[in-house]
Amino acid sequence: MKENIRTLIALQKLDNQIARWRQIAAEGPVKLAQAREKLTVLEEKQAALKANLAGNSQRRRELEGESADLVSKKAINQTRQLKAKNNEEYRAVLKEAETIGIQLAAKEDELLSLMEEAEKLDAEVPPAEEACLEEAGIFEELAREIERSVQESLTMEEQSQVARTKLTESLPRDILGRYLTVAKNRDGQALAPVSDGLCQICRLSVPPQLFNELQRNDRLLSCPNCARIIYWPEHPDFKPQPQPEEPSLEAHG
Ligand SMILES: [Zn+2]
Fold this sequence. Notes:
Elements: H1 2-82, H2 87-169, H3 173-185, E1 191-195, E2 198-199, H4 208-216, E3 221-222, E4 229-231
Parallel strand pairs: 1-4
Antiparallel strand pairs: 1-2, 3-4
Helix pairs in contact: 1-2
The structure holds zinc ion.
């Protein structure tokens, strides 16, 4: 039985690692999307700025055309002032001159404020472009890093699955079945070490009689509270196997 428990401990360790690698692989695309979002916001800001500038420039061209038309109208009006045949006609021509003057002034005002706006927008373009470039660099580096860690996790998981199959094949079917059932019901954590009389996963105490039995290490036992398969990690069976010692230099003088 102690061999089976050792195998279960190794299996649990491997399953926990596999779960971590799967998590890294699953989080990769989420992190990437978050980083992309930041870059997209800056790109949209830059695009909006350029669209504003283009709109501003188009309106200025229109205004210049409209002002030129009004200047022609003004010249014609001045000729008509000289040729007015009576007072009534003269007043009407003067009235028109006044209207043209008001319209021209309004176009000039609009043109001036558009030029001021264009100047401000022009000044905003270089920092916006710089921020975009900088964020694009950060994003690309992050994307490479995420891609690398996801790929590494997938490879590690694949390799672990080979080792996992070996472990599961070496376990009796009923013990493996019990491990898998508990793992399924307990979020992947089927095993629980018991130290100081406490189940180290659910943190509740194990009755002394059960703890005595556990220390014999000859049966598969469960935590009475969380139902996980328990073991006593301080048992000599679970101590790391002593490595063959290197010959000490000191011993040879
Ligand atoms: Zn427990």
